[in-house]
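Re-run requested by the PI after the first attempt was lost when the workstation crashed. Everything re-entered from the original request form. Ligand of interest: magnesium ion.
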Amino acid sequence: MIKNIYQPSEENMAQAAQYIREGKLVSFPTDTVYGLGANVYNSQAVANIFKAKERPLFDPLISHIAEIDFLPEYAETDNRALDLAKHFWPGPLTFVLKRKDDNPSIDLACAGLGSIAVRMPNHPVALELIKKSGVPIVAPSANRFKSISPTTAQHVQDSLGDRVDMILDGGSCRIGVETTIIDLTTPHIVMLRAGGMSKEELESYTGEKVYFGQENPNMPKAPGQLLKHYAPRKPMRINVKAEDVEEKEFYIGFGENDRGNLNLSPQGDVNEAAANLFAYMREAEKASGYEKIAMAPIPETGLGLAINDRIKRASYKE
Ligand code: AMP
Ligand code: MG
């Protein structure tokens, strides 16, 4: 049994920050899911993230920062980006901005693109780790490529084991799905990935239409938005009503009239459902006596957009 889960005590936080500076991999809790973190300026450490996750190198990583004032130093930041950062950060929202630095050491983190993805997580352990490390921390979700994202320290250990040098335990992640990613390199705001910040909230603050998916006027697809992703090791069907569940199918319900083996939110609350999603998919994957998974229909409002995106890809047949 590997012992690499640590409580975020002062001593352990100092150790974790030192590990980051030295180029080791530290997993830490965020408001969305657990991240697998490395020093953005250490390309060997960044490469080790791809290796640990078995993630293709063309998929760029999000940089995590702890202070808004640092954003203009790190990326091309116009007034719109600064204003959005002040309003929505820390929180589950990632910006894609033009790259500033021609610092080649961040090439790998940016997959050689001219853009960089940045966010500020709303979690005290994450923020303290970044501040103590003194460098931006790149962190994708702390799981193997294409499998379910981790929302507890134990999930990280189950998925990555000793491929990660240290796992900081911050309990269960509050939001439970990854960040919403918006492209701020063009005049329109384009949502590249639905996530923990709803499109409605972005539109209500900016007073503008936020484009998503097929509506995207710029349409190069966000790298990494692969069709099959987040997949449990059992076949999964989505949009399944309770009465259509088949034999040996583990049913994940939603809403009060939809009791299954598990229910994402008996009250029909999409935020609660997002927080439970990955943990319940894991339980369904592990449940003995069941060969398949079926998931109830989830409304397309608020975080429902992110949930439907994840489960569509989790159920995709190659
Ligand atoms: P994650 O899988 O949560 O680590 O998020 C990574 C995703 O963020 C990528 O698959 C891209 O969609 C987006 N992303 C990260 N870095 C960049 C970048 N430099 N330019 C454009 N999109 C990016
Ligand atoms: Mg991921």
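Saved to the shared folder this time. The chain has a mean pLDDT of 91.
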